[in-house]
């Protein structure tokens, strides 16, 4: 039994011609072979060298022959199971199916002043409970979602966050694999509760892999966990300003990760993440989160990686440049999510992110649940068969005064055809006035209170709880010994 | 002489790195006062910074000009050293991207703007530990310590550096400024930084204000 996910029932959106896909593929291989990737990790360089790559140890540079890249792209599985703590919630990744996961934020945000502040431990745990409750969230993503929590040392943010996720949700989880050996404890905790955790590895654009992420990748793969290869470029700053050029840099980064993962252990489950490619805003220097260029990039990226038959993760729908929950955050998130789903993402990050990665809020996650619902309904498409065509019915109802409201066909079908948003305002105008002119945000607050009052995630058993505490203690000792806390 | 300096200025304004280097070399060959040449360059980059601040220019122009200026500066500085002249420094800055973060662009832009503005800048690069920041602050007797962090996961490391300064008892000896994609004024305040600015020219102005110039 697995979590259902959402299935696209029609051809995916394609924005490149076959020739254009081929040109990007060819030029990506050219960059990998000619310029290569800076990999700041001796063990990885050695492994590349043993497998026929040109390695310059001084420059920490590996140049990867095209044949090896293509071989490794073939070795990576096109679909796979990803385990949850509750086996009923395992997900099957790949093909036409896709899932949603939240987008993290460093802090929580005040809903009146829009000032971010560190979350409390209770707010972090409540956030996990809400994500566990929302049906449109099938996986829980790194950082839990907060990673600046009052009273928690920065080095303990990831281990404490993973513990909070495991305690408060039984959904499949993804954590980060590039933060000061935190993956050692992430792996231990996942194993202690009999599950696995997808490990996220952020490349540093352009064309660089920091030592920490490579070491973490070795550890995750040796533990048998799937790896999320996350790249992204700031178009015009850490990658070319052109969409085609930026796609090449991002692809080269992710492909080098595919190669390394398959060299460490052939058949390792990988997710190629477009995650963080945006245009650079040339005024503020900030990334143009929610910009339409990111959406074009995700569509091109999905088209190319579908061809490689490697599952794809999209991060851009989760982020908006708006500092509040407003018109802008609504259209940026909704457009991003729809484009990602239409073009064939396997997992889409969406819920809860308020501005960039700076803040997260459960109310936003609940609003995003409605966006996810609309996207999923769209993706299911239009069902066409004798019953839905309803031609006999149309002929029997005829013109006015005929109507459909009293027909069995309507009672049978309307709920299958319509998506019912949970917090959108759909009242008539007089009702809206009568009920106090409430907005979607007001309804989201009510829904949040309902969830927290009623949803009780399956807790860990006593021995699992004990193990988690023991591992957290081990982590604290580890960082104290290193003088990091 | 005026023609050479005018061309030097023009090359920076046209974001022409090779041209700026060529005119700087010509200025040295023609024995133009290197202090004067450096002043022309500094004024030009400030004008460009102001135009950026006013919304007339965009980042690619600002960075293009700063790159041209930075490439030509050593040529003039070498000449200043050779003739034994001195140029009054605005102050000493230690700058770097914090531990765990290897993003370089924003930090290098600030470093460039500070150099252009007449600060003595010690750029420690990327992935710099708190201990290295503390050691360099002591060694160079820095007036300003500038910390960069792009990622929201590494932003909290800025707090660690400030804590390390406190532990060493030198927090009050240096002004700490912070920046990077993940940083806001509220965050800067909450970790006890002395200043924050979202832009590179703004960071240079902030540094000048903090050292009282």
Task: Give the proportion of residues in helices of chain B.
Answer: 55-70%
Mean model confidence by pLDDT of chain B: 90
Low-confidence stretches of chain B: none
H/I helix tally of chain B: 9
The overall pLDDT average of chain A reads 94
Describe what this molecule looks like in 3D.
The complex is a heterodimer of chains A (485) and B (213). Chain A has 485 residues and is α/β, with parallel strands linked by helices. Helix content of chain A is 45%, strand content 13%. In chain A, helix 11 crosses helix 16 (440-454). In chain A, a hairpin with a 3-residue loop joins strand 19 and strand 20. The mean pLDDT of chain A is 94. Chain A is globular. Chain A has an eight-stranded mixed β-sheet with strand order 1-7-18-17-15-13-11-10. Chain A has a four-stranded mixed β-sheet with strand order 3-4-2-12. A two-stranded antiparallel sheet of chain A has the order 5-6. Chain A contains 17 helices and 20 strands. With 213 residues, chain B is α/β, with parallel strands linked by helices. Helix content of chain B is 57%, strand content 10%. Chain B has nine helices and five strands, in the order ααααβαβαβαβαβα. Chain B has helices at 2-13, 17-29, 34-53, 59-83, 105-116, 130-139, 156-167, 185-190, 200-210, and strands at residues 92-97, 120-123, 144-148, 175-179, 195-196. A five-stranded parallel β-sheet of chain B has the order 2-1-3-4-5, with helices on both faces. Chain B is globular. The model of chain B has no long low-confidence stretch (mean pLDDT 90).
Summarize this structure as a short list of keywords or feature phrases.
heterodimer; A: alpha/beta; TIM Barrel; 2 domains; eight-stranded mixed sheet; four-stranded mixed sheet; 17 helices; B: 213 residues; alpha/beta; 9 helices; 10% strand
